[in-house]
Structure formats: structure tokens, C-alpha cells
Amino acid sequence: MRRTARRMRRAGVNPVMYVDDDIDFGGIAFSAIVHFLWRYRSELAPIWVMVSCEALALALHLQYPDSWTRVPVVSAVLTLAILLGGRWLGLRLALERAYGALISVSVGVWLTFAAKLGPGKPPLPAFLLIAGLVLAIPWWVHRRRRARVRVERTLAAWPEISSAIEMVGSRVQSAIVDPWGYRARIKLARGHTVEQAIAKTAEIESALGTRRGAVRILPVAEKANRMDLRVIENDPHANSLVWPGPSITSIKDQIELGLFEDGSPILVSLLRRHALVGGIAGSGKSGGLNAIIGNLSACEDVVLWGIDLKRGMELMPWASCFDRIATDAREAELLLNDAVRILDHKAELLAKRGERLAVPSREEPALIVVIDEFAELAEESPNSVAGTDSIARRGRAPGTQLVLATQRPSQSAMGGSSVRSQMDIRLCFRVREKRDADLTLGAGMHKAGWHADRLDAPGKFFISAPGHDYPRRGRAYLLSDEIVQQTASAHSAGMRTIQPPPQPAATANPDGELSDGPSKDVDRSPVSSGEKQARGAHRRSQRPLELCLRDAPADGASISDLLRMTGMGRTTLHNHLKALERAGRARRVGRGRWAPARQGDDCG
């Protein structure tokens, strides 16, 4: 009747009731009173408890006058059960269990006296009324109780809502209230799918009266005709999430990138997987990349190489954790060529051992190449695209992986290669257009509910990866500049390095043709004077570096200090340091710290 009246009012028709002498006001009044008592049963619960206590006390006093001695025992047992097992009764908080125990003690004391003296004996009625009203105040103001009642009344109108959004036949099976809103399990009508419900998200928000973007619809894996309807009333991601520190020490573990809206951690494994991070400028893409680097830098079975064509603006704060960082197109091309050589060398080792997959370890770490703004690399260094394409296609098994970040991973931005199709882990931060979500996450993902264009704060993102097959919004941890510096300093001591295999030298055979590697049939000629001059110039260029190392403190000089004192580029400095190390004139004393060789060391 009330539902029909609401429909008439929405249609602009005012309901009219005709009253005559034959109407049964008694039945109408009884129905209205019962409906009122049922609708407000939660608010009236303390009144029902007081009435029940009065009736029980009267029955005990008249029928069992000696029962007052057993009431305290029952009350004590009930109080103890609430304190110890209240969690299984729905009293999750200690304060809630204490409130339940207080109610049990108060009722037990009052019933003891009422059963012996009678419930009408003064001052027992006054005490029941005053104590009942005082103890009812926490119940009436309890936030979760009020939220649960409000949700029940909202979902009670689901039959009408389902009719308005063309989902007739669906019904609510259960509902749970949490600190951020509520979620309900909906059984769909026969022939309806979750995808159809996702397409009606805006209509559901309007029907429930929520704010825009508050409704989430998730499928239930066990049942195709079930869905979880989640309403976010208080955004758990309204504030930034401070990074708690690295969650792994090996790449074989799962990285924690942030938190989902229900408070559960966002866990993903990077073992033998390439990753793509996309999103417009200011979407928090760099924060997600920092969360990945911060975890990988703590792994003892990972070597990090980086390419940052913004002159190192993003990756240079992590320089002490990277074995190599390229900041221009030429260095990037050399770095990727070396990475491909390492990939080939690892593949050869696996073939010799009869193995198919490399297992990263401290002795044979995985190589991960982090590339920030990949579109710039494809534009400034087209020759580098072949290297990234080769790593993307062949690097999974040998343990050579890519982590790419770009604003819009279109085919042209990716250099026309197949790199994007090889990305198994995809993080999509806020985008401007719907089709950009499909570019990052895959074709048709926006239509399936991955609405990255509706993300409303930096750091919020969708993740598509094995184990993350449904659209769930998350927020990445935020690493401030201070946290990055502290983390890089803490992890610099454990930095791992990896050397590309030597390239075979081109030598001439007796016929005058060039061949790879030395020929046993050709005698070695003496070193020419030009080669001697070149070697002397090379050693003279190393002289300033050796002087800086000689003046280094006992714990060695850091890479940043050597860069500042010598004026060399990072790649040049690393090449000279490795040459001095091979020659026995320098030694590594820690992660990113170098010192002159000891007096007793071999000089090669």
C-alpha cells in the first residue's frame, strides 16, 4: 500500500482515501501500530528489555519465589560469556563487550531483588526506569547500530529500486556495515549478468541516493547470478597513505603497493613479469613507481638498471640503489644493448643446465630495467625500441624484466612495438579519456567497469594482474622526498651489480676477413705505438679518480661524492671504477662506496 502511494506521488498523482461509516478503523490502527513497532524495533530495543525484565521478575516472584538465589549465578555466567566470547556474538570491540557485560550485571542485580521482593516494590520500578534510560543512551547513539538500521531501511526498498533500474527479480540476500559504508550480496534474476549491472552503476547511485562514484559492483566467483554491491559513504582513500617500508626481501615475494578500499593490502608478484604504469601527469604515477622501486631495492636477488630521459629527475634520488642509470638517448641505447647481452647469456646458461626458468638468487640476481616516460625513449632513441622489444618478448624466463612508466601507452608512443602486449602487470592511474583506460589496461576494460577516468585523487589506481581480475580501486603508498632519501640510503649498502658478458673481438683471419674472436692460426702481433698512446690517455683520464679515492675516508667515497669531485658522467665514472677494480687499483667497500686497493692486493 505504501509502495503504491510512493509510486503515485512520483507520477504526480495525490492519493485520495474515501472514508465512510463502514471502514474498520481498528484494523487500520492495529496494522499501523505493528508496522511502527517493527520499523523502529532497533530504537525501541531498550524499552523491550525493560518490559521483558518486568514480566520475568513478576513470573519468578509469583511462580518460583526461591529462584532469586540462582539469578546471580546465571547473570555471572552470562557476563563471563560476553566478556570472553562476545567476539563470536558480533561484539568485535572491547568497549562493546564491556557495555554488554554492564547490561548483564545490571539486569541480574535488579532481577535478584525483584524476584525476592516483587517488581512493584519501591524503589525497584523507579530504578528500572532510570537505569534503563541511562543505559539505553549508548545504544541509541552507537554509530554502527544506526548505520545498520539505515542500511536495512534503504535496502528494504530494493524491490522498488530494481524495478526502476530494469533489474526486476533481483533481491538482497545479506548486508554488512563497515566503517566506510556497506556492502550487500544481490541475487540476480534469471538471465541477468553482472556486466549488465555494472553498466547501470549510475542508475543505481541515483536510486540509492548516494554521491557520484560511491557504488562499486563486483562479481562473485562462485555464482554467476550473484554480485556484491558496495557503497562507499566515507572514502577510506581521502588522505594519502604513508609508505610503511619495504614488504619484501626477495623478488619471489609479493610486493605491497597500497591498500584497497576495504583496507586489504594490494599484493602483486613481479617474479618473471613485466609491469606497465600508466596515467596522466599529476595522477600519482611516480608514487606508484617509487613504491615498486622502494621494495625492489630491498631485495638481495635483484639488480636495478634505470633509464630516465628527464635527466634523472625521477630516478636519480634512487641512484645509490641502481647499478646503472642512463639519462640520455645514447646511454639508454648502450644500457639496453647490455641488458640484451645479459639476457642472451642467461638463456645460454639455462640451456646448458637443461633448465627452463631462472630462479633469482644472490649469486644470479634478476635484472630489472626501470624506464620512466617510455614514450620519450621511443621518440628520442628509436634504436632502443628493439632492445625493449627483445626483453619484453624473451626476458621472462631468463629473469630480465621491464618496469615501464608512461602517460599514454598508445601504439605510437610505444614505438610501434609489441612491448605493451607483453606487460602482465598493469597499473592505471587517472586518465582523461575512457579510451586511455583501455590503452593501459586492455581493450574493453573500461566497459567492464575499470573506470580510470573517474578516479578523483592522485595515487588512486586500478591494477590488472594475475589474481586481480576484477575492477577494485586502490591507492598507492606515498613516498615523500625525505622517505626516498632515507630508503635509498638504507638500501645502498646491499646494492647488487651485474656485468654484461664480454663482446667477442673482431680479428682478421689469414685471408684478410674479419671473424668473431681470436684465431688460433694467426700469431699475436706486438702492441702498436698508437694503442700504447690510447692506453696511456685512458690511464691519465683515470688519474683524477685515483686521487679522489686516495683521499677517501676509511669507509670509502660515495658515488655522488665522486661524481661531484671528478666532474665525470655517471656511466663514465662506473666504467673507470670497474676498470680500476679489474686492474687491482680500486675496491668496492660497500653499496655505492669505493676506496683504493690495499697495499697487498694484486695489481693485475
Number of helices: 19
Percent of residues in beta strands? 15-25%
Identify the CATH homologous superfamily of the largest domain: P-loop containing nucleotide triphosphate hydrolases
End-to-end CA span: 98 Å
Report helical residue fraction.
Answer: 40-55%
User: What is the number of E strands?
Assistant: 20
Question: Shape from CA axes?
Answer: elongated
- Can you summarize the main beta sheet? 11 strands, mixed
Class of secondary structure makeup: alpha/beta
**Which class of the largest domain in CATH terms?**
Alpha Beta
Mean pLDDT: 84
Stretches with pLDDT under 50, minimum 5 residues: 506-538
When the domains are counted, the total is 4
**Named CATH architecture of the largest domain:** 3-Layer(aba) Sandwich
What does the radius of gyration come to? 36 Å
**Do you know the CATH topology of the largest domain?**
Rossmann fold
Binding site for ATP: 279-286
Keywords: ATP-binding, Membrane, Nucleotide-binding, Transmembrane, Transmembrane helix
GO molecular function: ATP binding; DNA binding
Protein name: S-DNA-T family DNA segregation ATPase FtsK/SpoIIIE
